[in-house]
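Supplementary Text 2. Reproducibility record for the structural model of the 291-residue chain.

All settings were left at their defaults, and a single model was retained for analysis rather than an ensemble. We include the record here because the model underlies the residue-level annotations in Supplementary Table 4.
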Amino acid sequence: MLFDGKACSPVTIEATTLASGNGWSVQEVICSAGPRDRAFEERHETVSVAAVLAGTFLYRSGQGDTLLAPGSLLLGNHGQCFECGHEHGTGDHCLSFHFTPACWENLVAAMPGVRKATFGHSHVPPAASLTRLLARLESARQEAVRQGNAAALEEIAIDLAGIALHVDAGLRPRSGRLGRHDAQRVSDAVRRIEASAQLADDSLTLGELSREAGLSPWHFLRVFRRVVGMTPHQYVLRTRMHRAAVQLRDSTTSISGIAFEAGFSDLSTFNHRFRAVMGMNPGSYRARPKC
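Retained model, structure tokens:
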């Protein structure tokens, strides 16, 4: 959950500032709250864009309730009240970017095609188009934590601000309310996908996931797509590509080894999928400068 409000429980939140500059900062936020922890009303003291790296949680604001999953972006307008709840699972891990109103206005003024400085939606759902940026963000986070080098995070903060505003402007309003049971079922499925060591395992088929959710495949597919923004299969592929991209930049494991660890038994299929999502083949991606 985000940590720019005043009512967060210090027992369940660990926030570390990784980088900061003139009007902006980046915090790594690890929350250990679970179903027994009460949600507190908080208020965004800055303009906030948070990338969810792990876990799930409910985000409640004047724009409605939504379930945040890894790969999604939480969008917070300055002064907006909100609550984060963990009634469907324990813990989450986010990288939270904060901008003072003055800094945000200066950024928005320089962005071509941006007409509004406020977000119209509470979040951006996971999408293949975000995978490249989020893999870059994860790599920069690891470099900041391990080596104390946070230079790349300032560039990512600016890129993330622009992407969040442009994507938010193009999102369609979500129809229907988020049911409690649907949120629980989708949260369980997302956490199952996250925890799976071998993401190509047959147990991650639509049939198996829907059986665990206690729904028909048709109903589960409909609920998952409405809540997460993509189908279960697309979400599995997004998760695999994200993990593979991070490994390519931050390890010396062979490309074939990374493909296998990501659940691909065929290297050509992995290369094709990776190129489609990341815009280049794995070898070229690994060779690119990190910043």
